[in-house]
Amino acid sequence: MSSAFRKAAKSGQRPHRERAQPASRKKLGLLEKKKDYRIRARDYHKKQNALRALQKKALDKNPDEFYFKMIRSQLQDGVHVVKQPKDEVTPEQMKLMRTQDIKYVETKRVAEAKKIERLMSELHLLDAEGKSPNKHLFFLDSRKEGKAQTAAGRNLLGFQEFDIATHLDTLPELVGRVYNRPTIATLKKETLKGVTDPVQLKKLAQQRKNQYDLLKQRIEREKAMFVVAQKIQTRKDLL
After folding, report:
1. For residues 151 and 164, what is the distance between their CA atoms, to the nearest angstrom?
2. Residue 239 pLDDT greater than 50, yes or no
3. Confidence at residue 130, expressed as pLDDT on a 0 to 100 scale
4. Which of 75, 98, 163, 205 has the fewest Cβ atoms within 10 angstroms?
5. How confident is the model at residue 52, as a pLDDT?
6. Per-residue DSSP letters for 34-95?
7. Comparing C-alpha atoms, which of 56, 83, 79 is closest to residue 68?
């Protein structure tokens, strides 16, 4: 109880204020207070204790004592560098690694094949680049009129030409199409469906070209993965 009364009595006292730096010593900076001295002294003693502990550890150390860094480190340019351990792989581990590699490559190849199949189902491969143009042959009974003719209107084997637009019952502007080629009767009943604006047609053509380029890249990637899988399988068999 006495300590409680003592604290209560001190609460009403004036706070202790340390004197400031005298005017004649202003050039020396701030006057160190007791709290500043305590922090500085505590830090000093902590460093001294650490130095004494290190000195004691160095004195107690046995110079002939073995430790693993004697054989696991080497000196390079005056600096000790830890040697990297060499991994020893057994033939069984190599076979397991090859099997995992084959499974990984095969998984990626199957994923690419599914993407290719999905792209091919979305695209029309009628006018794909790198593919020989389709031919539509017309066989006529009359020898004088001509024998065979392509849908593009090019004469084959030098025979007499005939009007393909009339034969297909469509407009001459639509003869070159290999898909969506309506007849004149259909055009009279209904308007031409689809985009007819040249700008939109150009944009759609560019998008189709980009899709075909992507499809080509995926096909090449799938072939490359198949080759890699075959090589890994061959190396695994040789082990």
Report:
1. 7
2. yes
3. 42
4. 75
5. 97
6. HHHHHHHHHHHHHHHHHHHHHHHHHHH--TT---THHHHEEEETTEEEEPPPPP---HHHHH
7. 83
